[in-house]
Amino acid sequence: MPYTTASDGCRLYYDVKGKADGQALFVTYPWTDALLEAMAELTRGNAEEIKKNARSFIDGLGEHYKLVIFDYPRGVGQSERKEGDLTADTVASDYLTIADAAGVDRFVALGYSWSANAALQVAIRTPRCAGVAIGGWPPLSGPYEALLDFMTKSNGGLSGWVMRTITRNKIIRCLIPKNKRTALTNAANMMESVANYYKSVVGQWNEEEEIAKLTKGPRITYFGSDDNGAPNHNLVVPLAENNRKRKDDLERLGWRVVEIPGYDHETLMQDSSGMKKISSLLLNELEPYQW
To answer: Which of 139, 122, 138, 145 lies closest to 28 in space, CA to CA?
Structure first.
């Protein structure tokens, strides 16, 4: 299995699929099996159906592009993590480490939700990221503070304590079915890694100034018309509203802003119809670019 080692010694798992001589797309959260299983466990969704939809999405992109797919954020799937290790700088460094290992010079970063704003952090740090095609997160007026507050409270609250207890207590671990234990471990690691990431971003960068520096390559952002975060998990954030409010500003900066009617944050990235719309959008919008 393909692993590469980050500058701090952390092992990262990746795979290369799709068109061997195609332009490279980076694909990670939320479309890898480990993350889909974790999300299905947390939302009581149908993991196999969600994975089937994601694989169809990935296969469709792979007919046209080389895909570098990796377990991320750190601690998810077969990628390792160290306590407190994930920052915006770490993310950018890890993407380049994976690019080197996969033999890729330049790439476009796909992303949705957390990985969308992570892709932005990569793009502003290295010209090897030739563009971004992201969804479920506004490139301007991103609710970073709200997400940091939610992650901090979740990790410090009862649900975070339960997940850590289940996944790290040897006796309790033996009592939990393996698939459920694995999903909960991925979820707990993801929550902690992402909280550390948001801590490194909030108050540490000028969003307006940095986004304005992205002037080349594809800059695509899309969102469901009903996207207000994850109300079922007590996370209500105006993702669709903020995208609409900043559409004119983004278009002046050369962005393509697409609203997809009838979908919220979860259905757009999990339902087969939502993923087909994303796939069609990406293939159409990326086709004119060379990187």
So the answer is: 122
Q: Mind giving me the DSSP string for 149-176?
A: HHHHHHHHSHHHHHHHHHHH-HHHHHHS
- Nearest CA to 36 out of 150, 99, 112 is that of 112
Residue type, 225: S
The helix (run of H) or strand (run of E) holding residue 269 is helix 265-270
Cβ neighbours of 56 (radius 10 Å): 13
Which pTM was predicted? Answer: 0.91
Q: Give CA–CA dist 263/239, Å, rounded.
A: 12
SS3 30: coil
List of long-range contacts for 205-210, beta carbons under 8 Å, 24+ apart: 205/88, 205/124, 207/140, 207/141, 207/142, 208/140, 210/120, 210/124
The two three-digit tokens of residue 81, written as one number: 């993590």
Q: Which residues are registered as beta bridge partners of 133?
A: 110, 220
Domain over 3-142+206-286 is classified CATH 3.40.50.1820: yes
Q: Which residues have C-beta within 8 Å of that of residue 128, sequence separation ≥ 6?
A: 96, 99, 105, 106, 107
pLDDT in tens, 192-244: 899 999 999 999 999 999 999 999 999 999 999 999 999 988 899 999 999 99
* Pair type for strands 235-236 and 229-230: antiparallel
Q: Which of these, 90, 140, 169, 132, lies nearest to 286 by C-alpha position? A: 132
CA dist 266 → 40, 60, 114, 140, 277 (Å): 11, 20, 13, 21, 14
